[in-house]
Design goal:
It comes from Winogradskyella damuponensis. This is Alpha/beta hydrolase. This protein is an alpha/beta fold. It has a single domain (2-256), classed as Rossmann fold (3-Layer(aba) Sandwich), CATH 3.40.50.1820. It is 44% helix and 18% strand. The chain is built from 12 helices and 8 strands. The protein has helices at residues 38-41, 67-80, 93-104, 124-137, 141-150, 157-160, 162-173, 177-189, 194-199, 217-224, 240-243, 245-256, and strands spanning 2-5, 8-15, 20-24, 46-50, 86-91, 109-115, 203-209, 230-234. The protein has an 8-stranded mixed β-sheet, sandwiched between helices. It starts with a strand and ends with a helix.
Length: 258
């Protein structure tokens, strides 16, 4: 389905009935990343997956898509369906978007799951890497995506889930260069939102991959100790929906039923 938004198109999928769950994909992903999980969640809930700005079938709005810009696009979909309260599950960049939304409209958030994601801002080293990657995207996009995408998986997962990895890679390669650069620039600009998450009156869960090369799980666990933010650790890497699918599905169902 589509809605018109700022003279552009936002694409989303919708399945099931019940209390709504909003699924927000990560960088270089689309709503398709949830295909194996949505059928289970939609047995008891209305599940809405949204293609974020510059990804999948959703248009680009400019050359910088801040997490706030993406959150406003998500809010437009919620308003279109008159959704006042929902559980949000955000993978990686989708978690950053969910946090930006929680800062803007905390009353809308019944629960927030950061899946292989973080409330931390980019450090200087990460910002520099994004800047270099954006320069490379303009001249050598396919190689850039292939190199970075493989690192999302734990070493043994690259062989064990070879077909799933290749399918996800093909989707990533269809991301427009403008969408890549705009999202990357937006991620560089995002602030630390630990206080937003800590103070949010909602169910809160962080899903951590023990072999995730992008997210420092130990740092997150240390930071949330003594708060009401819960966490679960899985055995593999950044792509829990592929590498730890059954455990993830079970825990997400438990999370949204709270």
């Amino acid at each position: 389905m589509n809605i018109d938004y700022k003279n552009s198109k936002i694409y989303y999928s919708i399945e099931g009935k019940g209390d709504p769950i909003i699924l927000l994909h990560g960088f270089l992903e689309t709503v398709a990343m949830w295909n194996d999980i949505t059928p289970e969640l939609s047995k008891t809930h209305q599940v809405i997956g949204i293609d974020l700005l510059g990804h999948g079938q959703t248009d680009c709005l400019g050359y910088i898509h801040t997490m706030e810009d993406m959150a406003e696009a998500v809010i437009a979909v919620l308003k279109h369906h008159n959704i006042k309260n929902a559980n949000f599950i955000g993978h990686s960049m989708g978690g950053y978007v969910a946090l930006a939304l929680a800062e803007k409209q905390p009353e809308v958030v019944k629960g927030l799951c950061l899946m292989n994601s973080t409330f931390e801002a980019d450090d200087d080293e990460k910002k520099l890497l994004r800047t270099r990657a954006n320069a490379m995207a303009k001249t050598n996009f396919q190689n850039l995506v292939r190199m970075s995408f493989v690192n999302l998986f734990a070493p043994e997962s690259k062989l064990k889930f070879k077909n799933k990895l290749n399918n996800a890679l093909q989707i990533a390669l269809q991301t427009p260069v403008q969408g890549y650069i705009a999202a990357s620039e937006g991620m560089k600009l995002r602030p630390n939102r630990f206080e937003v998450l800590k103070n949010l009156k909602a169910n809160k869960l962080i899903i951590i991959g023990k072999k995730d090369g992008l997210i420092d799980g130990e740092q997150l666990i240390n930071k949330i100790t003594g708060t009401d933010i819960e966490y679960i650790e899985f055995s593999e890497g950044h792509m829990s929906h592929i590498e730890n699918k059954s455990e993830l599905t079970y825990n997400l169902i438990h999370f949204v039923e709270k």
